[in-house]
Amino acid sequence: MLRRAAVVFISIIFVLLVFSISSHAQIVATRRHVLDNGLTVLVSEMPSSSTVSVYGLVKTGSAREGEFLGAGLSHFMEHMLFKGTARRGVGEISNEIQSLGGTINASTHFDFTIYTLTVPKEHFDKAADILADMLMHARFDQTELEREIEVVLSEIRMYLDRPERMLSNMVFETVYIRHPYRIPVIGYEDLLKSLTREDFLTYYRREYVPNNMIIAIAGNVTDAKALAAIQNLFKAYPRGPYLPDAVPEEPDQLFARQQVRYYPTDVVRMSVSYPGVSIHEEDMPALDALADILGSGQSSRLYRSLRERLKLVHSVSASDFTPQDPGLFEIEATFEQDNAEEIIKAIDDEIAALIQDGVRPEELEKVVNNSLKSLFLTELEPWGVAYRTAVDEAVAGKHDFTKWYVGALQRLTPEDIVRAAEKYLNSGKRNVALLKPQSMKPAESAAEMAGETKNKIEKIVLINGLTVLLREDHSVPMVWLNLVFNGGLYAEPEELNGLSSLMTRVWPKGSKRFSKEEIARQTEQKAVSFSTFTGNQSMGFRMDFMKKDMDFSMGLLYDAVTNPLFSTDVIQDEQKRIYTEINARNDDIDEIASIALHERLFAGHPFGMTLLGTRESVSRIGREDVFKFYQRYAAPGNSVLAVFGDFDREELLKKIKASFGKWNAESLPLETHDVRPITEKVTSVVFDEKEQAMVMTGFQAAGFYDADRYGLELMAAILGYPFKGRMFTRIREARGLAYTLGGGYAPMRDSGEIIFQVLTQPSSAEEVRTLLSSLILDLQKEQISQQELDDMKAYLIGRFQRSIETNGGLSFSSALDELYGLGYDYHERYIEEIRAVTVDDIQRLANQYLSLEQAVEVTVLPDSFKNPAGSPAVSGQE
After folding, report:
1. CB-based contacts of 207, cutoff 8 Å, min separation 6
2. pLDDT tens digits for 526-564?
3. Which residues contact 846 (CB under 8 A, 6 or more apart)?
4. How far apart are alpha carbons 39 and 51 in whole angstroms?
5. Is-contact 286 341, C-beta < 8 A?
6. Rounded to 5 degrees, what angle do the CA atoms 777, 778, 781 make?
7. pTM of the full predicted structure?
8. Using DSSP, how many helices (H) and how many strands (E) does the chain show?
9. In angstroms, rounded to a whole number, what is the distance separating the alpha carbons of residues 318 and 727?
């Protein structure tokens, strides 16, 4: 498992994971010192050795990189520390060590980074000086940094050509969903490329401080000499801040997981893993022993069963990975046939047999002997002792942790190992990662191709004129239904403004078959979402429900649409609620500005009204008005029914024809409305009892069917995107004049609108207006950069894709697009239209649509800003 924890290998055994027991084992004594600046120094005297190892461990690894997580900074530091210091140029460090007859290397792990020097004993002082120089004086020359980034990027790409590394990444991505162990130690290419020299220096200065380091020295050197040398080399460096180890905990795994990928290889590689323990937990020795018994060597249970007896695999092994935070227990196998399920069953059988029959004494003896040998071999040489003590101190928190580990293994019983198998090797929490040859990738079957066809949207027009959109998708047993109508605010008479909103609120609250109370009871009991909406030019029903409730839901909708009650009592109750919302709307500075702006931007047009209406207009609406409005627009020829989700197409279509096919209501066409163009600048001030000011500027624009709509959407976002647009950069970030700001473009039937708004201090309102005007002029005079345009395209496309990635979002969008005459498949064209916009288009559209002489400007100011005579420029909102 060490190969999963390190990016760069050095020829060292991770002794923490392999040490075993013996009362005869002799562990080299180590003295521990902590300097005044927090540096920990570990010295292990080995007088018979001819060499000395000087290791520097920094207690930061790929899982602990803070705001740079995922960039592989710890690994990159390892590269850069070899690229020279203030005293040593590029290549001099390695050459100097080589000239001394020594070796130098480094490796990066999830939890730490370690630098390793071993030299003949007479060169200890020189080695210590080189290590201190590397750790504390790395140069980060810009040229070398750029060169080394390319080296690391090549290293990242190289790993993509190694199936073992690919499998390793799959394992950790599957086992960990939150903990940074799921991120490759080497990091991701795009994140590394995004960093600057200052980012590297920030991380280096923060992490490479004495109190975050361990210097481990082992070999032919005395404790006094080693300590004196380190004290002298590091005395000038103060301790750094103690930063919290803000690593998220991995949640308990509740169910089995599996991931399958295909790769240009000839064999199948499989990992079967289970959530494990950290190095700090008492079960760790038992799990280590269990891994040895199951999958270490030719006498292991899995080897004898899966390879020798059943001949299912080429190789099989087991390991226990126990880092600073909870690790994992893993079984790996390679094989040729596509028979992973059979192999997993054989693994389960062996685990069950171990639990049932217990561990044999000779198996436990094997664990002891193998671990004892590893310990003996490691303790013979300084490099092994230096590595062990440094990692013991950093990861386990105790430099002689191995002594405890040896004793814990010595106390193990067969029952302890069986108990660990029962506790941790739970098939319900099993994780399977399969890397298969590309030749095993299944070709599209007829069923799959049929499934693709079913996922396509199908349009059917019934005899009565109702347009039906169907998309069959069996991924979850849910159905999403949208029934949409032309209407909404666009269809309202001015004297009855708010009629559409009132009607749609009352519509689902009672029909001939279902009372208001019965609808509430049954929809809540069956978890059926049943609601209505109204907008500027459309209105309708939205539903989602489980597949099993299809008949009830379709029946409820049909009765609500064709036989509504529109009870006077319910209408009056809803009118009272609307009055309350109107009052609340008049308390919102955004609403106050928006109402004033739309009254002027679309004077004499329905879009100059509001969805709620006014208290006066809503109070005029009676049941007869509601019913007439319903009769005028609730008809099959004026609607689109979209049903997306888990259903049988033929069965559903029969049900729709049997119910909605009998719907014979006649609809009247929508009246058209001319938009009165703005011919001169309109400036208005609204006074209200507010502490802040709102500056809002609007322009008339192209509507649904105009090819300019895509460029207008991009242009408005370039100015008004709240977190990256030019308004944000110039008004908020550079000048600090805004609390909130933004803007955008909205297409409609006869027209469209571009609106920008800034919430600011009253004293800054004029400055904000001036800045906004200058931003518009800049857009008209100068072409934007291709990069700025590409960035905004990516934002809009991503936002659009997110809006339609579910059946609920796609069904609603497709239904409205079909209703408006854009076509139910409009979403397939939208992205290409956005991509086709050019920088020339943006400049042309800015000049065509953002004329400051045809703008409507509304400013909301506190009452205290009225002129001394008390007569406001524009009366306050009622």
Report:
1. 58, 60, 74, 77
2. 999 999 999 999 999 999 999 999 999 999 999 999 999
3. 715, 776, 779, 780
4. 24
5. no
6. 85
7. 0.58
8. 33, 22
9. 58
